[in-house]
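Re: export button greyed out
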Amino acid sequence: MVITMSGNATAAQIDHVIERIRECGFREHVSRGTEKTVIGVVGTNSNRNEIEALRAAPGVESVTPITQSYKLVSKQMKPERTTVRIGDVCFGGPEVVVIAGPCSVESRDQLLSTARAVHEAGATMLRGGAYKPRTSPYDFQGLGIDALKFLSEARAETGLPIVTEVMSTEDVDVVAEHADMLQVGARNMQNFSLLRRLANSSRPILLKRGPSASIKEWLLAAEYLLSGGNPDVVLCERGIKTFETETRNTLDLSAVALVRELSHLPVIADPSHGTGRRRLIVLMSRAALAAGADGLIIEVHPCPERALSDGPQSLDFTQFSEMMAGLAQPSRRIANAMSLVF
Amino acid sequence: MVITMSGNATAAQIDHVIERIRECGFREHVSRGTEKTVIGVVGTNSNRNEIEALRAAPGVESVTPITQSYKLVSKQMKPERTTVRIGDVCFGGPEVVVIAGPCSVESRDQLLSTARAVHEAGATMLRGGAYKPRTSPYDFQGLGIDALKFLSEARAETGLPIVTEVMSTEDVDVVAEHADMLQVGARNMQNFSLLRRLANSSRPILLKRGPSASIKEWLLAAEYLLSGGNPDVVLCERGIKTFETETRNTLDLSAVALVRELSHLPVIADPSHGTGRRRLIVLMSRAALAAGADGLIIEVHPCPERALSDGPQSLDFTQFSEMMAGLAQPSRRIANAMSLVF
Amino acid sequence: MVITMSGNATAAQIDHVIERIRECGFREHVSRGTEKTVIGVVGTNSNRNEIEALRAAPGVESVTPITQSYKLVSKQMKPERTTVRIGDVCFGGPEVVVIAGPCSVESRDQLLSTARAVHEAGATMLRGGAYKPRTSPYDFQGLGIDALKFLSEARAETGLPIVTEVMSTEDVDVVAEHADMLQVGARNMQNFSLLRRLANSSRPILLKRGPSASIKEWLLAAEYLLSGGNPDVVLCERGIKTFETETRNTLDLSAVALVRELSHLPVIADPSHGTGRRRLIVLMSRAALAAGADGLIIEVHPCPERALSDGPQSLDFTQFSEMMAGLAQPSRRIANAMSLVF
Amino acid sequence: MVITMSGNATAAQIDHVIERIRECGFREHVSRGTEKTVIGVVGTNSNRNEIEALRAAPGVESVTPITQSYKLVSKQMKPERTTVRIGDVCFGGPEVVVIAGPCSVESRDQLLSTARAVHEAGATMLRGGAYKPRTSPYDFQGLGIDALKFLSEARAETGLPIVTEVMSTEDVDVVAEHADMLQVGARNMQNFSLLRRLANSSRPILLKRGPSASIKEWLLAAEYLLSGGNPDVVLCERGIKTFETETRNTLDLSAVALVRELSHLPVIADPSHGTGRRRLIVLMSRAALAAGADGLIIEVHPCPERALSDGPQSLDFTQFSEMMAGLAQPSRRIANAMSLVF
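Workaround output, generated via the alternate export path:
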């Protein structure tokens, strides 16, 4: 860490900071500039918190960390990319993973027909919400355990592995019993109790980025999972909140590209929530793959205009099938071409 | 709701929408303009979701709600302001409530000395984190149940009621046993499992606004509590995420003023998290009260530079005491003067 | 427009609004719901402002436009895509346009060597700042007219057309004398005096999106140019301001995709400013093309670490050349594949 | 400045950076940590740009400035607060300045009646737009020079000094002839050509914060004025763009409080644009003064529902008069009380 003293810091204030650095088990490296004194803090990182608290000491202008606070998720720790496997599906490998299905499981028929359609169109995994986080208490809250059973049935029929959201520590066991992968929703990205519980699960986790989470906060949420014992984490960019209201969120594809620089974890994109507009999903799916995404998660519904949630951003079966046909080949070509540069 | 058809919508598409409106138990009111057809949806509100899904129907450009989706928290439902009482403390009444205490309970001594100091300075309630939501898994996570016992002891000695955060449904009972008021932290504002559990608690709730929550989303989170059975909710503005980095968050005092227009619930402000800078807390506390806040929540620590969390935004005992001395009188005068207008 | 009266609006207030609608030359269409009265305003659009002012009338809750305020830039007005031609370069046609060059023209040698390098690598147009908008008055402000001369010389040698920023109405003539295309910088997107002056120029305009401009505001800025007489406008997405600080801006590729839905104007992307990080430029260039961008604008410098501006986001010659080699072929394949869907 | 080398930087890369630091006339101060090497750059500040460019050098992770890039506007340069005087009006002194008037000058009658009303109610300065920056080219663009004449006439009658916006370098002379203070609008905050021209004006400048300008960018815009020769600058916070849409902008009162810490310049607030809602203006005016604002600028119109611009955020004469009555006394009490703390 680097501590910058304010221009009018006294010698006593500087000495006090140095004394405190030593108390915490670090060494100081003082650089007296023409305007300000800068103190490098040299040593290991375990008392980092105590040094950061020096922001509050008299005469201190700022305390700047120079090392990242995440470790296990970083490329420094593990330069080769992680793959997360669920049966035949592999996140982070050469193949693009396409997860598709309805926002909410609304009925057995709705789910099974969608599962068949997305399977036929080439999706490799099935999504469907059983427990729904809804902004309003008056909106449809999901079918719960019935939905989980329908999902199991859909897997039995189509062979597609299942991912579904778990909203509460209390539901982890029952959801893990039916699902192959557990999703942490955007609003729960910093639900640390839930993260700690999922760190003990044997299921892989799909960790959505929070709508106002910085990339650093997102990676630290993943760090909760890895440091707690679960190495099988897939990140999912799903759009952030900005001033723009024409799209439901702003899909931050730079974050996809950057996460691949910073971390070894697989990362996918959710253009359905990222844009909130059905007509943008095909182009943004292609853009996400071009930016380096390892996969996509797409909302598909038999009749979007009757969907109990997220209709306007859901594709119908025909649209999804056409999208998959278009994606199929060039995505590999993009990948090849990408290998030419950098 | 008002449905706007796109300029090139066909007669069949318009008919389809009308048919669907009737199926859902509403009546339509069609207004054919020079460029676009607009369809008013008249009737009661229970199938609102199904009408909103028509956004996905062919030829539909937009579906605009004209009634708010929250009910119980609104002033339409209850024009007079709600008061939430905890012993002698009353949120929403004529007196300003000042909650003060450390970000985290770090030790028995730290808490008791702070409790005594803020009590003496005039605070009317004590805060202190037992379970801490921390961005990094490597940061101090709180003392848990030990902290709750120290808080109980501090109440016994000073008479100050206690508010502390509850992070998980599993902790609700133990926290409610020790605390007088349960805080939902900003990151958990849309942890709906937690909200549903707290709706069944007999304790009043302090509901912080999420860092990227719109005012509407915040009020709907409160609606979860009221509609689930807990009427004793106090809102807390604590800053939102914006592009500005000089302050930790952007304290949105317009939200305080606006929430008083929209809702009957009491609302307080948290200038400590809202600014992240100790030197701004006094001015922003005054500004919050001038904007109509019913109270303040302020972080105070015996030695901020040694705090395990939030040191840079914590006041020491002297600073807090001076702040209270300054706030004491004019806040009533502001309130009187405010009554002259509007 | 649709006027929503508040729930407790009186009959007199409703009558007053209706009277005012008629005074402004429109007809009203009243829909009395169970909770609120909604008034559709039917007629032509020229007194739109006066109807919008009714937001301030007693009893009015909201006034919602149902038609877009831009006309000439919209696809409703002109469904086929516009092409903007500068010599052999064509924006909006089948070929991707790649503009490359230094952020600032720093010297004759720097510019000429860069022009040769980007020409050889396959760029089809040259960029280079002569008048630089700099956040600080102490930063390098550009070489002005000397830079314009070097740009002319570079065009003479390489045949690449020139685009450069014009910051002031007073400079329009001299810049137009040397440059083939005039850039409106992001900070000047709503400099309406400049837009009005450029509407009278015979040069095509490259209109960058402002860092906090909504898509609607961006299209309305283009509307200033078209309505003032200049049809040759190319839009450029260059990133918006958000809470994320890991990237310099957040490149909003959804905006590229959406602008192609809303407008017939060509649109390109600037991944250099959009990310601020050299290592993300290749991936984000591909992503921009996949999202539907008609071209790219890329900063290239002979020695980025000595650049007087934007070094960290500039490619050196080798990096640019490798990027172009990678882009060359698959971009056409993406375009072909895209045509399969929707 | 502090240069952080990446963890795997080579000795040659570190040497290269050091060599470059020396070439630029600075000295290096190398601190080799356990994970990374940090290089302090010691010396005067004139080649700052060249050091910042080292962000682009191989092995460099970040370059962090430790001194502010603004000088003349800072409190370090001038600890005592600046006052800007216009006749009897004094910004930055003990009295609160209240500027009031219509958004746009729409007619002689409208302006004169408003001038009389705000004068009588206690406003000390008159505002009124002659040249209007409008998002759409189809909206009312202002009366131009006729409006300037009406403003002069209003001053002659009421004695109130005039502030009005200047949008273009070409209009500076004519506006300065009629107005006592020249406003730089929010959209022009980084119109550097305009700032440079206004630096040569003898009129004081009211510099509005851009809707997406950081506090640092705002102060640097003021630095353009001071460094160019005009010391009479008053800052104006008018709300920033955020995700919240219930208010037109988010009035950032922390910025008011913080600017008083960082700069000696007077700062006022604009709750009309800051909120866009008439009903919030009184509370937010009080909050702004409590946060330390030296004054207010308020939109007032004889009949807001017929205003050609900004009706919904304009007060009518009665509302303004009531607001002033309420503000009159307690604001001094707040100021007194504030002096008790810090």
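Chain B is about 35% helix and 20% strand. The button fix ships in the next patch.
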